[in-house]
Specification:
325 residues; alpha/beta; DHBP synthase; Rossmann fold; 2 domains; four-stranded parallel sheet; 17% strand; globular; binds threonylcarbamoyladenylate; binds magnesium ion
């Protein structure tokens, strides 16, 4: 495995059929050329992910959207114009380019244009190397299946470094600014459907499209399994008023607390993070869950943020982490 800060090294690796972990504004992805069945199969092997779970195809610009998707509804173009590049993934009917090994055999494909400068640099360099304006990088979050997504290059190395091969690359682009995975919107029906909450909210989608967002969907999304994003420690969502009671019942030093900064840490608990608002909560969430495991804590108490903005996504991930015990 090669660690680098040079996006061209990651692009060359991907073009050569290897894997590259690449930073995005949400979380780090484990990327391979989306047209390369062998390389994509290695993503599944490294992640330990079931083969029928589809991957997101990352592209450099919205022009590639129409190359991977077909019958793209007007509202999806409106979303692309409003929020790309950015932390949003759109699921549309697939073109012949999106093979079964990307879509898990589904008739739809998930597309995203990331805004992280390193991710963009990798995609633009790949366009040069391959001479393919719609070249795509298939990339799930660079964690083992069901585990916490990485938001730093060090997390990636901890998580999968031992499973990567000599020519695979980890591109270090610093800490991820958003910290939770992209909003996924199913655009295969008459209205946008929210498959996974993220930094782009239901209100954002409704404002950009003028349409009501629905929440039921028959499309599979592995990040929407009940148990996901799980550390080894158990996670329990709790109200501020109950913190002292919960901590008192436990042995000293085995409980971690994750809560907004204005909430105090009771004696006996280890403070994992004290974010000042929902955006910061999202940014530090996964590092805090990893920290709890590094400290070998048995349990994490999490006081969720308010359910507005990216707070909705934080609550969603906490609930799934809590289900993963
Ligand atoms: O922020 C993100 O989205 C990160 C960065 C790396 O882009 N990626 C990410 O990928 O979270 P992953 O594979 O961990 O989660 C992608 C989710 C999965 O739940 C998958 O099932 C869903 O997207 N997905 C992919 N293709 C789909 C499709 N055609 N229909 C429905 N869901 C799909
Ligand atoms: Mg994931």
């Amino acid at each position: 495995m090669i660690t680098t800060t040079d996006p061209r090294v990651a692009a060359a690796a991907i073009a050569g059929g290897h894997l590259a972990a690449v930073p995005t504004e949400t979380v780090y992805g484990l990327g391979a050329l989306a047209s390369d069945a062998r390389a994509v199969a290695r993503i599944y092997a490294v992640k330990g992910r079931p083969a029928d779970h589809p991957l997101i195809v990352h592209v450099a610009g919205a022009v590639a959207f129409g190359s991977w998707g077909v019958r793209i509804p007007t509202y999806a173009h409106a979303l692309a114009a409003a929020f790309w590049p950015g932390p949003m993934t759109l699921v549309v009917p697939r073109s012949a380019r999106a093979k079964d090994f990307i879509t898990g055999g589904q008739d739809s494909v998930a597309i995203r244009v990331p805004s992280h400068l390193d991710a963009r640099a990798v995609l633009l360099e790949l366009r040069e190397i391959t001479k393919d304006p719609a070249v795509g990088v298939a990339a799930p979050s660079a964690n083992r299946f069901g585990r916490v997504s990485p938001t730093t290059a060090a997390h990636v190395v901890d998580e999968i470094g031992g499973l990567l091969q000599g020519d695979d690359v980890v591109l270090d682009g610093g800490d991820c600014a958003v910290g939770v995975e992209s909003t996924i919107i199913d655009c295969t029906g008459p209205n946008p459907k929210m498959l996974r909450p993220g930094a782009i909210t239901t209100q954002d989608v409704e404002a950009a499209t003028g349409l009501k967002v629905t929440h039921d969907s028959t499309v599979r999304a592995s990040g929407t399994l009940n148990s996901h994003y799980s550390p080894n420690a158990t996670v329990q969502l709790i109200a501020e008023a109950n913190i002292a009671f919960e901590v008192e019942g436990a042995a000293q030093g085995v409980i971690g607390l994750l809560a907004l900064a204005d909430i105090e840490t009771p004696i006996g608990a280890v403070r994992l993070a004290a974010p000042r608002n929902a955006e910061e909560y999202a940014r530090v969430l996964y590092a805090a869950l990893r920290e709890a495991d590094a400290l070998q804590l048995e349990a994490i108490l999490a006081v969720p943020p308010a359910a507005t903005g990216v707070g909705v996504a934080v609550i969603d991930r906490l609930i799934r982490a809590a289900a993963g015990a």
